[in-house]
Write a structure and sequence with these properties.
single chain; alpha/beta; three-stranded parallel β-sheet; 47% helix
């Protein structure tokens, strides 16, 4: 073969190789965006999410999984602020992944924006129906439908509830809890006498509680958060309500206990805390408490696991969102600090639920 032809062939092959390497090269800046309430009523929960991400970042860098990357935080919860944060992440910050969002009321309008930009979006909180089915949604948490059904069945079968009321805040998360708690409780043989909706930032629940007291229910399902929930517990006991009050995994929050005081005694919640605890979970809890002087909650653990999975996906795919999505959907029985994680077709994870009760100002495992 002519030397010129051979030389030309080598040049062409070299060009093809160069194009391949450049097109598959990871972007120099791996940027993760997080939308969480850093201030306001739910700041304590946002702090736990921040801590989980930062601890995961330290571990990722220490393990040499990646040389460097940025986590960008935006303090937002309500729709207007969350949408503005999402638009900034896309147009100015050029994030690779929306690594975490907490307030579902803000996440619902953000998700279509991220979908249009083909950015994979992680939700740290339980997932309402309105986010399921979106292509780029991923979560290490489960669906509200699943959680609510477990809570309602427990209230009927284990607590012996016959008549119940629901108090929920006016968000997609609250509406889904109300829907599936009510459906499941009545299907099990109980009766829902009323459903009371509140503003998301409500602090006075006496009007709703007075109506519920008149119905003489034995179960009150609550979907409220943080200090406002503490107020609800206190006001319920001040009104002389003796019904069992049952919440969800988002309520395992020291702000609830500090606000309610002795009125929190007997408050029951579902919990995603994994049992039995693996060495990995115990080590995470020990290091987290030493670093932040508080025990990790389910959101800190979910944030930690989310970042670990995001980095693994990025190392495999770079900034190719579809590749990242496919990688994450193949996650099965991943041993995380929030428990065993398998990503379902709808993007959510399915985890076992235990129940806890407040005794001596602490959430402890519920036992009959």
């Amino acid at each position: 073969m002519d030397k010129k032809v051979i030389g030309a062939v080598f040049v062409i092959l070299f060009i093809f190789l160069l194009v391949f390497l450049v097109s598959n090269k990871k972007p120099e800046s791996f940027r993760i965006g997080v939308i969480a309430p850093i201030t306001g009523n739910f700041a304590a929960l946002g702090e736990h999410i921040h801590n989980g991400f930062e601890m995961a970042k330290e571990d990722v860098l220490a393990q040499g999984k990646i040389k460097s990357f940025d986590i960008l935080y935006e303090d937002a919860c309500q729709p207007k602020e969350a949408v503005a944060a999402a638009q900034k992440f896309i147009s100015t910050d050029k994030i690779t992944i929306l690594g975490g969002s907490f307030c579902v009321v803000g996440f619902v309008p953000v998700l279509p924006i991220m979908e249009e930009a083909k950015i994979v979006s992680f939700n740290i909180a339980p997932n309402p129906d309105s986010v399921l089915g979106h292509k780029y949604l991923v979560s290490t948490n489960s669906s509200i439908q699943l959680k609510a059904k477990q809570i309602a069945q427990f209230a009927h079968d284990t607590l012996g509830g016959k008549k119940a009321s629901v108090i929920y805040y006016n968000t997609p998360l609250g509406a889904d809890y109300n829907k599936y708690l009510s459906e499941t409780f009545e299907k099990a043989g109980g009766k829902i006498l009323s459903s009371e909706v509140t503003a998301v930032d409500a602090t006075d629940f006496r009007t709703q509680l007075t109506k519920i007291k008149a119905d003489k229910v034995d179960i009150i399902f609550v979907t409220e958060l943080a200090a406002p929930l503490g107020n609800l517990l206190k006001q319920a006991r001040e009104l002389g309500i003796q019904a069992k009050i049952v919440g969800n995994s988002q309520n395992e929050d020291p702000n609830v206990l500090s606000t309610a005081g002795i009125a929190a005694e007997g408050f029951i919640i579902s919990s995603d805390e994994p049992f039995p605890k693996t060495d990995k979970i115990l080590d995470f809890a020990k290091r987290y408490e030493a670093k932040f002087n508080q025990k990790p909650d389910t959101f800190a653990a979910n944030a930690y696991d989310s970042l670990m999975l995001q980095v693994d996906a990025y190392n495999s795919c770079g900034a190719d969102s579809d590749c990242v999505l496919n990688y994450l959907h193949r996650i099965s029985n991943y041993t995380g600090v929030s428990g065993q994680i398998s990503i379902a077709e709808n993007g959510t994870a399915s985890k076992p639920t235990i129940f806890k009760i407040v005794k001596n100002s602490q959430f402890v495992k519920f036992e009959q």
